[in-house]
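Take a look at the protein record below and tell me what you see:
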Amino acid sequence: MNFQMIETEALHLPREDRVRLVEKLLNSLGKTSTSLDSEWLNEAKHRAEDIDAGRVSLIEGNKVLEKARKKLK
């Protein structure tokens, strides 16, 4: 199988299976995974600071999903 075939098949998996697959792939990268975790944590901290400081405005989740669904139609 090539990458495109694997990707197509993986995207058709149920959500829980996709999550498990992502976790296994990230774990297979070894130290890189830890580095990614650290980067995500830093990003989350920066975003929380922006929210607390009022530098960004928040959008309700249901509005984001509604907009995304419209774009997918």
Notes: The two ends are 31 Å apart (CA to CA). The mean pLDDT is 87.
